[in-house]
User: Which sequence fits this backbone?
């Protein structure tokens, strides 16, 4: 599809569609390597810097960002977590992840990371990022002249950007994956059969770090975010309406599902966010078609059960940026192997997320077999040092490619 004659025409090496952690990491690494790129984002800069998202970054990812000078504020301000707690059958069980694995989680919500990455790319490096763009389209992605076009939100003018490669980093509902012709990739989906009511409470944490509550009424979770704000989750039926969960009902269920001997009652507060999230995963294989390479949620979605999504996006971005830099110098082996390299970690994290889902949701499944096997997994996890070490390694993320 050729651009209209009236469209403005520019050229860059890489067009990055999407300004989330994946797209911005790619853009920063390319910019540092002296490779031209343009970032296109459908939302405003203000919106992406405030959009509520995940808050756990694995230590290997933090170290990788730090090597590229992209983790300054993160390392200065982020809290780390070295343990979490299971609560079930009215008892508390502390699981010391750092002691078992030698690694930690960094608590750093995605909006903060996005803010840092935008500042590094736009404000510090003078990178080209265009926010609020409309009607983004991809052209000739399987040919010799790939391009991306969009409409300027202020002027209504159409802009056409020719490039060598397109990085599709625009998430689950973006345009890049949809541009791949039917039948050229395979999308595999798995539904956990549950949903979580995601809650953000204006209340101080009631425990240190993460608490997983396993209860016959459903899973519940507490996750400290700041001295004033706490993230909670409640398992609810798929398709549930968040409006059916008023303040009093939410706190009654949280108090019940997270109760345990010796644990203080939860500190309650106003709920500033209530969103129902269906727990499902999908994977696109391969993560590339022609001159288009997908990264992050455009290529795979991992339910937030094990807090893996942002970490996979960073892994994709690091691999894609490395491959694009090599491509710029005439070596295409990295791009040829990009999808396979990413999918090794994707499938490992998906398997772990599925395993943990059974542990967390088995007791409330109504299925005696699932409940029994979930309880057996917990007993093994808490009673075997070898099982605990293996779990901690997966929970906190493996250092090397999987």
Assistant:
């Amino acid at each position: 599809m050729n651009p209209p004659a009236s469209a403005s025409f520019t050229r860059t090496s890489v067009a990055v569609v999407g300004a989330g952690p994946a797209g911005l990491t790619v853009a920063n690494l390319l910019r540092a390597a002296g490779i031209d790129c343009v970032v296109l984002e459908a939302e405003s800069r203000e919106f992406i810097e405030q959009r509520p998202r995940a808050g756990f970054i694995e230590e290997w990812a933090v170290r990788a960002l730090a090597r590229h000078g992209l983790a300054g504020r993160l390392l200065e301000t982020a809290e780390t977590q070295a343990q979490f707690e299971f609560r079930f059958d009215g008892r508390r069980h502390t699981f010391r992840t750092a002691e078992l694995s030698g690694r930690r989680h960094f608590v750093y919500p995605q909006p903060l990371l996005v803010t840092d990455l935008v500042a590094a790319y736009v404000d510090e490096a003078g990178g080209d990022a265009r926010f609020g763009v409309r009607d983004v389209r991809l052209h000739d992605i399987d040919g010799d002249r790939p391009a991306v076009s969009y409409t300027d939100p202020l002027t209504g003018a159409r802009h056409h950007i020719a490039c060598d490669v397109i990085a599709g980093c625009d998430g689950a509902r973006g345009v890049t994956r949809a541009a791949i012709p039917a039948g050229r990739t395979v999308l595999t989906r798995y539904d956990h059969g549950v949903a979580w009511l995601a809650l953000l409470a204006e209340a101080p944490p009631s425990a240190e770090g993460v608490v997983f509550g396993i209860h016959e009424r459903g899973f519940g979770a507490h996750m400290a975010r700041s001295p004033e704000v706490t993230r909670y989750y409640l398992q609810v039926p798929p398709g549930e309406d968040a409006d059916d969960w008023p303040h009093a009902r939410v706190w009654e269920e949280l108090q019940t599902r997270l109760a345990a001997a010796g644990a203080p009652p939860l500190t309650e507060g106003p709920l500033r966010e209530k969103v129902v999230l269906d727990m499902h995963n999908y994977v696109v294989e391969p993560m590339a078609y022609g001159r288009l390479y997908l990264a992050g949620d455009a290529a795979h979605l991992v339910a937030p059960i094990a807090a893996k999504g942002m970490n996979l996006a960073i892994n994709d971005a690091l691999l894609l940026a490395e491959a694009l830099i090599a491509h710029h110098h005439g070596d295409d082996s990295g791009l040829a192997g990009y999808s396979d390299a990413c999918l090794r970690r994707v499938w490992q994290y998906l398997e772990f997320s599925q395993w943990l889902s059974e542990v967390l949701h088995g007791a409330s499944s109504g299925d005696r077999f699932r409940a029994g096997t979930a309880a057996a997994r917990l007993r093994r996890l808490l009673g075997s040092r070898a099982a605990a070490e293996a779990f901690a390694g997966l929970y906190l993320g493996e250092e090397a490619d999987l």
